[in-house]
Amino acid sequence: MKKWMIGLIALLLLLSLSVSASAAEGKVTYSGNAGSFVFEPGSDHSPTDLFPDFKGVMPGDTLTQAITVKNDADDKVKVKIYLRSLGAHDNSVEFLSQLTLKVAVSNENEMAYLFDAAAHQPAQLSDWVCLGTLYSGGTVDLNVSLHVPVEMDNEFQNQIGYLDWEFKVEEYPVEDSDPKPPPTADVTASGWFFAAISSLTVVLLLLVRRKRNDQRI
Amino acid sequence: MLGKIKGKIFIAALMACVMSFIATSTLAYYQAVGTATNVVTSGEIRMKIHERTDAGTEFPTEGVYITPGDVVSKRVSVENICDHPFYLRVKIVYGVDSEQLPSEECFKLNIDREHWVLHDGWYYYAGIVQAGQTTPDVFSHVEIVGSKVDNRYLGKTLTLTVKAQAVQSENNPLTDGKTYTASGWPAE
User: Fold this and answer.
1) C-beta atoms of B33 and A170 within 8 A
2) DSSP 8-state assignment for residue B186
3) B27, A37: Cβ pair inside 8 Å?
4) CB of A217 within 8 Å of any CB in chain B?
5) Minimal Cα distance from B22: which residue of A?
6) Which of A10, B41, B120, B170 has CA 20 to 30 A from B111's CA?
7) In sequence order, what are the residues at sequence separation of 6 or more whose Cβ sits closer than 8 angstroms to the Cβ of residue A91?
8) Which residues pair with B75 in a beta bridge?
9) Least CB-CB distance to B43: which of A57, A166, A204?
10) H/E/C letters for each residue in A50-103?
11) Using CA atoms, how far apart are residues B85 and B174, in angstroms rounded to an integer?
């Protein structure tokens, strides 16, 4: 009984931790058909803010922000997703130039660094960098780390720094040679739809044949 | 014969429908761009000095009239009013509106030595002041020393100023747990 209770409490604690961890995640979702991106979670300062964990930073902090980029388009397209940085807004350069930013993309369980420079610069992300090719439901994970030097001066207390990132997608039709994505709820639904259309076609053909036979008689 | 032609037309129409259905599944090449404006904000250290009387009221900003030997109720504490914990130190500065008269020995304070440690003229709070926390009183009463405040001070204004400084405790380790060893104390 006691073990059961301890197990339950541990599970609840794990669940609460996972909820709080996911709450701080940045999300970029592409919905398809050249639609717009959805950026989450946003903040009081910007509705498209992907950095919920970089608030109230203090000298000496090294913080990490996880960002998931997802292709939410239907299963008939694959997309190539690109990222580039437009750098800091003019009024943010002085503050953000104090900070160091690193951006890495997950690549088969390894993190490949895309960016490592002062936070205000576009640096290695001046030009479009391909994050990967994503099929429907596919994701790519970005890992952003921010370092605040312990020597940062008092004058940078209570500052706000704006940094623009651009995401771009190119849609391509899925080819027969492409790997098959794992089945999802959407795939199952479209499968049922296709089956219904096929059945209807067969029924219609049977009706036509029967009508022709009736006319011959 | 007519029925045969109608049947062929119907099958052709059906094939066209199926072909158009297949055609919609072959999407054209699309491109889309979206901009995320990401925000980094820095924290700050803010505090508020409280000066209250034993009755719990604010100590009058205009001061109080004193006579030698008086014990004035003045409780001084500091509140952390930001989101970050900090180390804290306070300094008590005495003054009198006459250059010829000393002020240092006119006051006697009952400093709380349990929580406040004197080092180089500053009283350091022996711990971390967490966000939203108010420190114990640095002192609660001020005695006007009768043997020092003589007739020369008649009509003069004596001042007791509490100066406070704080430095972040995050990423700021101490040596031997002494808060005065923290880095980043502002210049006096």
Assistant:
1) no
2) P
3) no
4) no
5) A194
6) B170
7) A162
8) B52
9) A57
10) CCCCCCCECCCCEEEEEEEEEECCCCCEEEEEEEEEEEECHHHHHHHCCCEEEE
11) 14
Name the phi and psi angles at A163, rounded to 5: -135, 120
pLDDT surpasses 60 at A41: yes
Over 70: is that where the pLDDT of A7 sits? Answer: no
Question: Which token pair is B33?
Answer: 């761009």
CA dihedral defined by B94, B179, B49, B163, rounded to 10 degrees? Answer: 30
Q: Shortest Cα distance from B165 to chain A (angstroms)? A: 13
For residue A133, the one-letter residue type is T
pLDDT-derived band of residue B87, with 50, 70 and 90 as boundaries?
Answer: very high
> Cβ distance A64 to A125 under 8 Å?
no
- CB–CB of A65/A26 below 8 Å? yes
CA distance B10 to B13: 5
Residue bearing tokens 């940062």: A152
Q: Which residue has the higher pLDDT, A74 or B169?
A: B169
ipTM of the shown complex:
0.75
- Which residues are paired to B164 by β-bridges? B90
Q: Would you kindly state where each structural domain of chain A is located, as residue ranges? A: 25-182
Domains of chain B, each with CATH number or no CATH? 47-181 (2.60.40)
pTM over 0.80: no
Burial level of B5, CB count in 10 A (0-12/13-18/19+)? exposed
At residue B29 the predicted structure's pLDDT band, cuts being 50, 70 and 90, is: confident
